[in-house]
Structures are given as C-alpha cells and as structure tokens.
Amino acid sequence: MPVDPTAWVAPSAVLSGEVTIGAHSRVLHGAVLTADGGPVTVGERCVVMEQAVLRGTRDHPLTIGTHVLVGPHAYLSGCAVEDEVFIATGAMIFNGASLGRASTVALGGAVHIGCALPAAGWVPIGWVAVGDPARIYPPGESQTIRDGLSEVGGFMQYVFGVDAGADRGAQMRAAMEKYTRGLAKLYR
User: Fold this and answer.
1) Domains in the chain: how many in total?
2) N or C: which end of the chain has fewer CB within 10 A?
3) Distances in Å between the alpha carbon of 61 and those of 20, 112, 164?
4) Which pTM does this prediction carry?
5) Shared domain check, 98 and 173
6) How far apart are CA 163 and CA 129, in angstroms?
C-alpha cells in the first residue's frame, strides 16, 4: 500500500489491497478504500472524507486525479475522476463512469455505469446522469433512467457480465457466484 509520506490516513480508515495515496492527500475517519481485484489510485492534494467508500474492480480500476474532494458517505466504484472534481455528500459514481475536469456531483447525485460527465459538467442535487455523453435526469424519471442504462446492457450485465435477458433470480445467482468467487481470491 504505497501512501506518500506527506499524505495522512486516519487510524480508523481502511486501505485494503492495491491502494495508492498521493502527496498531501488526506483520508479521513471511517473511509474505506478497497481494491477488489483492481487498483485504487488517489492523486495529490485530495480529500476523501468520513465514511466514503472507494472501490476498484478487475474490469474497472478506480482513479482520482489531483485536487479532488470526495464528500462524506460518497460511494465510488470502478470510475475515473479527473482533476479538480467536487463529489458531494452521499454522491454515487458507478463502474465505468468518468468525471471530466472540474465537474461536480451534488448531494446525493448519481453518475451511472458507463456514463461520461464532461469537463465542468454538473449533476444537481439528487439527479442521475446516464449515457455517453451524459444526460441528466431528475430522480422521478426512473423509466427514462432505466432506458438509458439499457444502452450498456443494464447494470447486472455491465458490472457482473451476466445474461441481460435472464430473470432477476438467475442474474443474481450468476452475479453472486462470480463475485463471491472473485472476493474469495482476495479475502481468504
């Protein structure tokens, strides 16, 4: 776990697996940075706040540029975050997503699988970004959001590689078989 000597990681934070923390960055109390088969890289002068969860996966490493703020209770999985990005409290950034330079994801906003938010892009409080290029929707437009996710095959297919045409039970069985087997290699 290479942590730059000028960085600080709170004693209650968890760094698990191939995690790199850049110069002058801060990882605050209760944050969890875990490389679940793929690396997690945090650049220079970043702050990862309390209870944030950052996860790298085999198919989608997690990378964060420089001068990035990850707010409390934010969730980032297998995404690419460029420099000078603001990710607010409770925001969620999913596998394969990318956040362009100086973009913002406001309180409780979501950037969904495979979504590309452009430089200086903005996801308002509680709204959801889908697609490449990103289209932004209010949370009440769940069918439109679901339709946007179908462009990449849907969440279960994109993240776990399961049959998009299978019923949810079959998808969950296949996904959890793969996921638990992969995690068993990391956490014996």
Assistant:
1) 2
2) C
3) 12, 16, 23
4) 0.88
5) no
6) 24
Tens digits of residue pLDDT in 125-156: 999 999 999 999 998 888 887 788 777 777 77
CB 121 within 8 A of CB 134: yes
* CATH number of the domain that residue 42 is part of: 2.160.10.10
Domain span at 179: 153-188
Claim to verify: residue 58 and residue 140 sit in the same structural domain: yes
* Pairing mode of beta strands 135-137, 128-130: antiparallel
Q: Are 139 and 120 in contact (CB under 8 A)?
A: no
Closest residue by Cα to residue 115 from 89, 151, 162, 165? 151
Predicted local distance difference test score (pLDDT) of residue 141:
84
Residues 169 and 98 in one domain: no
Give a yes or no: residue 18 inside a domain: yes
* pLDDT tier, 176 (very low <50, low <70, confident <90, very high otherwise): confident
Provide the CA 96 distance to its chain's centre, in angstroms: 8
